[in-house]
Amino acid sequence: MNRTIIIMLLVGLAFGTCKKKEKEDNSSLLALAYVANSSGTCNGSAATTGVTVSNSTATLDASTGCVTGVTTCMDAALPSWIKDNFKCATGYVSGSNYVFKSQNVPNTKSSYYGTSSPLYEARTTTGPNPNTTSSQKLVYTIPSAPSKGTGTVSTQGGLVSIGITVNGLAIFNNAAAPPDTLAVEALTFDNYGGHPQNTGLYHHHAGASKITNNDANLVGIILDGYAIYGKKCDNATTTTTDDFTPSDLDSLHGHTTKTTHFTTATYHYHLTYDSTATIDTLMGSFFYGNKGSVSN
Ligand SMILES: [Zn+2]
Ligand SMILES: [Zn+2]
After folding, report:
1. Quick one: which H or E segment has residue 67?
2. For the chain, which end, N or C, has fewer CB atoms within 10 Å of the first or last residue's CB respectively?
């Protein structure tokens, strides 16, 4: 590590206590994580979900941008749209699937780490949620060549999670625990738009502000193998000036077009207004493609 990178890290750490600044620092941490991860060999039996992260000692590892103790390795055989963007998880190719393993602890401060954690930050929402985040052992097996399904397979159905974000966190659908609607449950989201369910599994239903803020950023991959983006589509260019809010999304939050990651028109999802949830959500009620599997 050269002197410049060390100085960048120290500057990043100094700003780490300021929430607004932390989001800007994210880019330098992502760049470092890319250097650290992109050439790794992370496949096979050696890949694990790592140690159990303890909330009482959880801190951010500036070199990876992930919580200390979180395994972060993206195998070199993965396509660049995954290995250049995903971290805070292990990912590799296995046959006709991508496998992701995640401890699923947020690389942000959160009220749900509990008041005794170094990563505690009071939330601004006031809805009741008695749960705290806890370290998981999620394993996703996701088709590497996604295929169109019936569009009628529910995104609920007792699934542990329906996708994984670029920072290794679970994606949930547009539903809340009955009888609440998600609009009510949103009143329990932490300052980065996530919360844990009753076994401590932290997840995002809606805006994940660590990774997307009304932009075209890649959010993650869904269990059916299709990518999911923020509210905008990137017009298949890296410049943000031509990003646009798609007007042709289907009821599953998706459409088929090129992006910077897919040079031929490919189906993908977007964060968008969901009529069931009555707020913006990442996913709707059904999968577009044939889904893989997930365990914990
Ligand atoms: Zn939830
Ligand atoms: Zn799009």
Report:
1. strand 66-67
2. N
285 CA to middle of ligand 2, Å?
18
> How many CB atoms within 10 Å of residue 67?
24
Domain that holds residue 79: 3-295
Looking at the 3D structure of the chain, how many domains does it have? 1
Per-residue HEC secondary structure of 6-21 comes to HHHHHHHHHHCCCHHH
Best CA proximity match to 203, nearest among 174, 237, 239: 174
Secondary element (H or E) of residue 81: helix 80-83
Q: Which ligand is nearest to the CA of 259?
A: 2
Per-residue pLDDT of the chain (296 residues; tens, 9 = 90+): 344 444 444 433 333 323 333 333 333 444 343 334 444 677 655 446 678 899 999 999 999 999 998 988 999 999 999 999 999 999 999 999 999 999 999 999 999 999 999 999 999 999 999 999 999 999 999 999 999 999 999 998 889 999 999 999 999 999 987 888 899 999 999 999 999 999 999 999 998 999 999 999 999 999 999 999 999 999 999 999 999 999 999 999 999 999 999 999 999 999 999 999 999 999 999 999 999 999 99
Centroid of ligand 1 to alpha carbon of 185 (angstroms): 7
How many A from CA of 92 to the centre of ligand 1? 27
135 touches 113 (CB < 8 A) = no
